[in-house]
Amino acid sequence: MSAVAPAFLPEALHIDIPEIDNQHAALFARLANLKALCIAANALPVVEAEALMLALRQHCATEERLATAAGLDFSLHAVKHGKMLKSIAKTLADVQAGKMDVFSLIRFVEYWFERHISEEDKNLGRHLQQAQAAQQ
Fold first, then answer.
1. What is the pLDDT of residues 18-47, one digit of tens each?
2. C-alpha 42: how far from its chain's center?
3. I need a surface site. Which of 9, 63, 71, 125 has the fewest CB within 10 A?
4. What are phi and psi of 3, to 5 degrees?
């Protein structure tokens, strides 16, 4: 696991798939950085917000790639990713349009991300580990 992980990924959210845990840690680090920038500027830095969305899309693609390679049905998980990405993109647009404050966005993303890891990615991790064990 990367050096970023201990600082930004709580142990309770590790799923024991290093590639995913490293991405989760990097996403938490990105959120912490975005929060600090928002506090400093009292505004949403658009470049950082777009980078967060790109990182989230890449992370979702990684999970799908690993699940597909392991022969797992990822369809329900992918639907949840799609809903999350759409919801975060809408919230970003609302912040940019002045309909919502930036700190509500950050709380929403942090809450969603932690809940998704706990409720979805932990199961994905177990299934990936079982698939890896079966291949050995």
1. 999 999 999 999 989 988 998 888 888 989
2. 23
3. 71
4. -65, -20
